[in-house]
Amino acid sequence: MKYFFNRIFIWLKDLRSKIAFYPSLFAIFGFFFALFIIYLEDLGASKYLLDAAPILVVDNGNTALSILTACITGLISMMVFSFSMVMVLLNQSASNYSPRLLPGLISDKNHQIILGIYLATIIYCIFVSQSIQPEGNSYQVPGFSVLIGILFTVLCLSAFIYFIHNISQSIQIDNILDRIYNQARKRLNFLLESEKELFTIFPETEDWTQYYSEKSGYFQDLSSDNIAGICDESATRIEIIPIKGSFIPRGTPMFKSEKKLDEDAVNKILSNFSLGRGELVTQNYVLAFKQITEVIVKAMSPGINDPGTALNALDYLTELLALRMRKRDDSYFLDEEGKNVLIKIRSVSFGELCYQVFAPIRAYCKHDIIILQKVGLMFIFLKKQKTADEAYLKVIDAEAQNFLEDGKANIKNKTDLHTIRNIAEELNIKI
Fold first, then answer.
1. Which of 151, 205, 279, 356 has the most Cβ atoms closer than 10 angstroms to its Cβ?
2. Which of 51, 68, 50 is nearest to 59 (CA)?
3. What is the pLDDT at residue 84?
4. Which domains does the chain have, with CATH numbers?
5. What local confidence, expressed as pLDDT, does residue 124 receive?
6. 155 near 124, Cβ under 8 Å?
7. Is residue 272 within 8 Å of 85, Cβ to Cβ?
C-alpha cells in the first residue's frame, strides 16, 4: 500500500507541471459548486436574500439570463486572449532565450490558476443559466445564483488585471533567471542539508547484479525512502547507475544490487523511478546550469547580440557554482536509524558540470573581452569559496586556463591582452 501511494504521489507531482492541471481542477470545482448553489436555491436561498437585501437580487428571468450570457461571452473572450498571451510568452522565450525554458514557464502556477478561475466561472454561469425557467406565478428567479455569478465575474476581471501584470513580468529575462536560480538554489540547499556531515566509504560495485529499465524517458526523480525500505527488507544495498536528468532508453542499466533480488522486489524498486518526457529544475538542479548557459550562448549569438543579458546570467551562474562546490559528487541514503548506507546515488561530477557549462560559453564568448573579464572574476571568486573536495579547485584552474588561452588566441588588442594576463596572474595560471 505504501508503494501504491508513493506512485500516486509521483504521478501527481508530474501532473502538476502540466499547463492544464489547475484549470482542470477549477473546472471541476465550478461544476460542483454550481450544483451546490442550485441545491441552495431549492431550499429558498433567493427568497431569503430577496427579503433581506432586495437590491442585490435580480427578480426577472430575462434580465438574469441576459446578465449570465454577457458574463459567459465576455469571459470566453478574456480566456482566449489570456491563453494567446501565454503562447506569445512561450514563443518569445523560445526564440530569444532558450527552448529549454518552456517547461518551467508552462508550469507557472499563477497562469494556470488564472485560466482556471476563468474556466470555473464560465462553467458555473452556464449551469446556472440552464436552471433559469420561463417566468410563472410559482417560479422564483435564482437571484442568489446570479449574484454569485456576477461576483465571480468581478473576480475574473481582477484576475485579468493581475494576469497582465504577471505576464509583463514573466517575459523579462531578469525574472526568468531569478526564478531558475531560486529553484536550483532550493534544490541544492535541500541536497546539502540531506548530506550534512555524512562521510562514508561505499564498497566497489563491479560484481553486483545489474537490473534494467523497462521503459524509456528522462530520469526525473526517485523515491529514496521507498527504495531504502525495500533494501532493508531484502537485506541489500544498491547503487543508482544513471545520472538524474539523463535520458534512459529501454533496457538501460538502472541500478546494481549487492544481492540478487526476486522479480517482485525489482519491480517495486523500478516503480519508484520517475521517468518522463521533460525536465524541471525543481527535480534536477543541473538543468538550471544548462538553461543559464543556453541563455548566455543565445545572448552572445550574432542574431541576438545582447552582452548585458550574458553578464547578468553569469552572476547567477557564479552563485550556483559556489553553492555546488559545497556538495560532493555522490550522494548516499541511510536507513531509518541513520547508521547504515543503503543507497548510492550518482550525480554529474563537478568537473563534468563545469566542462558542460564553460565549453559552449568559451566557444561563443572568447572574442569578447568584457565577458572574458567577467568570467575571470568568476574564477577568482570561486577559488576563494568553501569546497567539499579540494579537487574542485583543480577543475576551476583547468577551466580558467582553457578560457584565458582561447581569449588570448582570439583577441589582438594590447590593452585587452594585458587584462587577460592580469587575470591569469591573479589566478596563478600561466598562459
1. 279
2. 50
3. 81
4. 2-171 (no CATH), 173-365 (3.90.1170.30)
5. 92
6. no
7. no
Strands 273-276 and 217-222: antiparallel
Residues comprising the chain, all counted: 431
Residue type, 10: I
**Which run of H or of E encompasses 375?**
helix 369-382
Ranges of beta strands (E only) in 158-271 are: 209-212, 217-222, 238-240, 247-248, 253-257
Alpha-carbon distance of 424 to 380, in angstroms, equals 10
Q: Alpha helices of 97-142 — where are they, by DSSP H?
A: 102-106, 109-130
Q: Who's near 221: CB < 8 A, 6+ residues apart?
A: 10, 13, 244, 274, 283, 284
Q: What angle, rounded to 10 degrees, do the helices at 391-410 and 414-427 form? A: 170
The predicted model scores a pTM of: 0.73
Instruction: Kindly state the average pLDDT of the residues 35-47.
Output: 83
The Cα 269–Cα 230 span in angstroms is 7
Helix (H, G, I), strand (E, B) or coil at 8: helix
Percent helix, percent strand, percent coil in the chain, to nearest 5: 65, 10, 25
C-alpha cell at 422: 592580469
Helix or strand run (H / E) with residue 232: helix 224-234
CA contacts within 13 A on the Cβ side of 93 = 27
Burial of residue 59 (CB within 10 Å: 0-12, 13-18, 19+) is middle
> Which of 258, 264, 211 shows the shortest CA–CA distance to 237?
258
CA angle 318, 322, 324 (to 5 degrees): 115
pLDDT tens for 157-186 read 999 998 888 877 777 788 888 888 998 899
| Element containing residue 276 per DSSP (H, E) | strand 273-276
| Phi, psi for 257 (deg, rounded to 5) | -120, 140
> Which residues, 6 or more positions from 298, have their beta carbon under 8 angstroms from its beta carbon?
96, 97, 98, 304
Name residue, grid cell 446570479: 146
CB atoms under 10 Å from CB of 331, counted, come to 18
Cα separation, 189 vs 194, in Å, equals 9
Using only C-alpha atoms, the chain has a radius of gyration, in whole angstroms, of: 29
Per residue in 376-391, pLDDT (tens digit) is: 999 999 998 888 888 8
